[in-house]
## 1
Amino acid sequence: MRKVASASFIGTAIEFYDYYIYGTAAALVLNEAFFPSLSPLAGTLASLATFAIGFVARPFGAILFGHFGDRVGRKAVLVVSLLLMGLSTALIGLLPDFSTIGVAAPILLVLLRILQGIGLGGEWGGAALLATEYAPRERRGLFASAPQLGSPVGYFVATAVFWALSSWLPADAFQSWGWRVPFLLSFVLVVIGLRIRLQIAETPAFAAFSAKAEAAKLPIAQVVRRNPRELLLGAGAIVVVYVMFYTAATYCLTYTTKTLGIPRPAMLALTLVAVVVLGVSTYLVARLSDRLGRRKLVIAGAAFGVVWGFLLFPLLDTRNYFLIAVALSGALLCMGIVYGPMGAYLPELFATDVRYSGAGVAYNLGGVLGGGVAPLLVAQISESAGTTGAGWFMSGMALLSLLCVLALPETRDRDLTRV
């Protein structure tokens, strides 16, 4: 199980590192590198729009990789998704900017971002299944925390690399070439991830299923036919995770540095503090879910998000570093409480023959609304109605997740070998 957990964690951490460096770059530099002819606000919105495109692509990646994951197996699909994500990320680091190749630069940026989204869309479902289908029933929450921890660790490393570069390099050097370094590091990380993942055998649950039953010809069609309720409610339940994270980690980075005038290195350092809170809470709550169940903990996290949505921006507007750290940490604490149990909760909602497709599509559908659309809407609402309106939006999305979880059952004791 240690080897399985390591493979699940390492691959997910690398893929989320790749994904998050784009979000950080979109908030800090991509508007000037690829949309220099637009106004600062329009350039920021265009940059965040390319960030959102990746989320739109993620459900398609979940359908594509879920199809083969449910028919061929979990392991092979996870290797391909890691390759796709890593190579598309590294190519962004080599992409000429607008001043060099003109309008072709943002077009190619969008295409590579779509490939990133497709790759990550296939990653989470497979990594979660790798952990849960190997784990004993009474410890599924604990071992399912491995892919969940990949997210905060990937983001911590991504933010730390950007913090170091923005602190050590002159502003002009960071703007011209320094931001590319985190993307180019993906070449090295992919090699490490592939070496670990290639050592893992197929999961016992899928091996037992494939030995006695025929795989569904079109798994996503079976999910829509048999489990539409679980698919839509599962997607809604995880929306609060995306809203809290991408508002705090992407839009708030833009808002504090460009509107409030907080220095970029200081904001990145404060974000690192919040990410530590995310990682610790994700692990502890995931482990606790083996004793208390997944559902009640997710309900508690979503309810906390309803409250924190109103507090986030007033705390940021103080410009006090300690209170900014509290604001970001509270948002990511909410995420951790919900995100920790989700590694086991979403896979447990679906049967073995459609689990990769069902869990992956639910996870990534929630990302379209919560991660792709939320930063754009928060930016536009803040511009037109102020940050109070943005807080109402965040709390409303948390309430949506709360209502969805209330309509779902507890799954802690389910048998994952069922079809």
## 2
Amino acid sequence: MARTFTDEDDALLAELGVELEPKRSGVRTAREERIIAGFEEVQRFVDEKGHMPRHDEAGDIFERLYAVRLDRLREQRECRELCLPLDRQGLLDGSAGEVAIPNADLDDDALLAELGVEADAPGITELRHVRSSAERKAAEEVANRAVCADFDKFRSLFDQVQRELDTGMRETRPFELKAEIEKGRFFIVGGQKAYVAEKGDQTLTDQGRTDARLRVIFDNGTESSMLMRSLQRAMNKDEAGRRITDPAAGPLFSGEVEDDDLASGTIYILRSQSDHPMVAANRELVHKIGVTSNDVKQRIKGARLQTTYLMADVELVATYKLFNISRSKLEALIHRIFGSARLDIQIRDRFGRPVVPEEWFMVPFFVIDEAVEKIKDGTITNYIYDPKSARLVER
């Protein structure tokens, strides 16, 4: 018959140093198993490569992961005590040699995120009280973005850049070099236009790389004080990130034809002979502004049968030859300048169907001629037509 121990028996056994509680089995938790497995991966790397994993941005992805992982194992007391009995290479006590730690604030998942790799399963990086890289970056983004108090100073710049993109004076190209980040440059990042309004003095990082503090204005009315390398990293990670080129230098077209110029077409100005009451009452003001690659005189033959020409004959007022320019973009630019004076008229075609013709504007010819001159010298994007004063005015 089994004997039942009394409180006195327990006390006597305790005095003799006999433990009543069974010793804990050697079964580890799932987290402990992951920690050990992670440490063993680092050990295998050292065995194969013959050196400690390094924090080299140009190095292998997994080597960088192992380097960050080893940093974490050293820092976390629980991890260190768990793996220390297995440390045959002196990795945890540093006897195997230390390496520089430029990314000491990144855990495994954070480093994977930096490299654009998604971690499928949690690893030893499930550290308590440590925010993930995504959480940190989201917090930094919120903290760094603020309402731009003087956005009115920059609003017109964004509008002008968009117009110049539409007309082909500027283009978007893939971002390539940090050297492209300069004061006055425009970029597209995160689906927004970004303008580098200020750039501070250039400094060197601990790794010997150049950096500088920027003031970046975004087209949604916010701004950020970020480092140049932060903007570079954001551009590199954004598949849709682009840099916006500076306006093309030189005139868009010229009356002087060089030997190597490629003819692109002709701007033509027409005046209608239509007896429509609105046209007849404003005949000296109503003009059609178009761009063509064909012979203008051939194009306007049979004008009386085409709604494009108001079903009437037309008078050719002026032509301007184009060279080395997109006709469609230039046409769009001209129509945008005079958009406020577009002729609102409806006529009927040969079959009696109502049609609203395009490219007709109620603008004096001398203003059109002035606009062409401003297109030549590249200043047209600073102007728009004011119907009330019947002249070009600065934006």
## 3
Amino acid sequence: MSRRITRATASAALVALTLGACAPSADSPEPGAAPGQGCDGDAVALDVWSWRTEDVKTYDRIFDVFEEANPCITVNFQAHLNTEYDQILRTGLTGSDGPDIAQVRSYGLLQPLVEGGNLEPLDDVVPALGEFDDAALDGARGREDGAVYGVPLATQTIQVWYNTAIFEENGLEEPETWDDFVALNDTLLEADVTPLAVGARDGWFVPTVHDALTAAQYGGADFQQALRDGETDFTDPAYVDSIQTLKDLQQYMPDDVTGVAYTDAQVLFTSGQAAMFAGGSYEQAFFQEANPDLELGVFQVPPPPGSALDHPVTPGYADGNWGLSATTQHRAESETLLTWLATPEFGQLVADELKQFSPIPGVEYADPLQQEMWDLYQENPAPYLLLVDYRYGDPVGTDLMGEAGQKLFLGDTDAAGAADIVQDGLSAWWTPGE
């Protein structure tokens, strides 16, 4: 059967796929306990908000562990659509029916909540924050006061996932060179298999794909430093070339890629209709839950000839924090939960249950694939550039690349024009070297 798909078949697959639930781990408490059971005082329910709709069942299991040790506190975990979450959260934090604790973004997208007085600083609330790595805390700091406004949740890495069965069926191996990467894409295309599951209808996903495929080409951390030092900007030839590479790789993506949603792309990959998925480490738990029989592999994309770097890299970033609402009516109980969210126990649950990289010291990774991704990141790290440094003003860098990439795929601009969209948009609030 042909695996080469279009927007229509992607949507049909999304409807048809039934997601299986993961079984509770051996360490999870027995189900069925009533809220507040065993409490010898006043029972309190904390509202905890998130943008990770994919993780609701898993977080429910994780918070069961906390509730078992704290029988007077029940955690009501609520997830909202990720594309709508920021606005919903801003409204909730300023009203009377918002969360007690919320997953909040990192870096620049955290700042409006800090500046609006919506979050409480946690430096004196969660002593364990002093043991976190500075790189993780940087995503949780207020830009002006340097205070920490969140317990770091996870570090995410960006790479290419692949379906090992499809690779084996077509005699393919992980690419060692750029020519290898192009050749395996051609082989899949000739076999009528969609090589890259990409959904560009959701603009936020486009810069993720761009960095997964081309971060080494434009220079990774070296390019970041050159921007910080004022030595270049986003019209740099290496950055323009990386955008051209993204365009060149469109032939390996689904037809009408700008009409394919991010969730469509997930389904194309988990259902075996596409061989590769350029995305984050945060996908692992969802992929394995959606298709428990799916055998996964990961690799870094080798840079093309003439790239700024001669070796592949893994982009990464601090992905979100647990923030304390300034208007919570349950301050003591919220602080108890936040303190637990900084413990190795919670961090290990994040690693084991969510398959994500916890910034909490002492966490280990039993999953071989997870350990492989972490090792690749440690060997050749790079920033997810537009997220880490370019969300501190309006418009944000990731939105600009999302718009630029969509126009690029539609043929409404070329690589240089896409770079201009990013540079011109950022120039409204950013000057290289400042």
